[in-house]
């Protein structure tokens, strides 16, 4: 038995599925938080780009990374709270807070990339990949923080697709901002 046996759906397992529903107000709040934090992070990147002092630039990037990372994390957990299941769901405080680290690290990397005067293709691809993986790590570690009597498994193709989409959108976002 490998580690993936308790993570992915096994085609041989006969499992029943539980329906869930989304609370529209919380979904809209999640979208608003996402847009607001991304806008503030782009403003911070511009301030850092114009900074003459290296120390000021690093402090600005760090502050922006914390703000953007917390925004990504908050958006994610508001979205998780928006998903209502017909059972009790509790979150492990330690793992929930630990899931903040990949979001902040990915945000620091993204802002660090946006501040550079020039970025080539391989740097963009590598940074976008690491940002996408950071967001994926935040998402799935946050999901692991869920404590419920239900058994939760991931469908392997959808899981992989979610990581590919996160990486692709991160590369696209960094490219769009550096190309501007």
TrEMBL record:
Domain MHYT: 22-180
Pfam name, any one: MHYT
Any one GO cellular component localisation term in the record: membrane
Transmembrane segments: 20-42, 54-83, 89-111, 123-141, 153-176
Protein's UniProt keywords contain Ribosomal protein: no
Record InterPro entries: MHYT_dom
Lineage top rank: taxon: Bacteria
This protein's UniProt keywords: Membrane, Transmembrane, Transmembrane helix
Protein's recorded name: Sensor domain protein
Species this chain originates from: Azotobacter vinelandii (strain DJ / ATCC BAA-1303)
């Amino acid at each position: 038995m490998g580690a993936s046996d308790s993570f992915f759906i096994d085609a041989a397992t006969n499992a029943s599925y539980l329906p869930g529903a989304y609370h529209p107000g919380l979904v809209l709040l999640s979208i608003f938080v996402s847009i607001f934090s991304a806008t503030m992070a782009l403003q911070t990147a511009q301030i850092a780009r114009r900074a003459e002092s290296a120390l000021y630039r690093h402090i600005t990037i760090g502050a922006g990374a914390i703000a953007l990372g917390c925004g990504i994390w908050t958006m994610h957990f508001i979205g998780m709270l928006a998903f209502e299941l017909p059972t009790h769901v509790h979150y492990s405080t330690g793992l929930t807070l630990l899931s903040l680290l990949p979001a902040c690290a990915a945000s620091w990397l993204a802002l660090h990339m946006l501040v550079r005067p020039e970025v080539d293709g391989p740097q963009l691809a590598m940074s976008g990949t690491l940002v996408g993986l950071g967001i994926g790590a935040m998402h799935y570690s946050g999901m692991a923080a869920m404590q419920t009597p239900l058994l939760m498994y991931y469908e392997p193709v959808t899981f992989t697709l979610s990581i590919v989409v996160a990486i692709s959108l991160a590369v696209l976002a960094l490219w769009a901002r550096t190309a501007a």
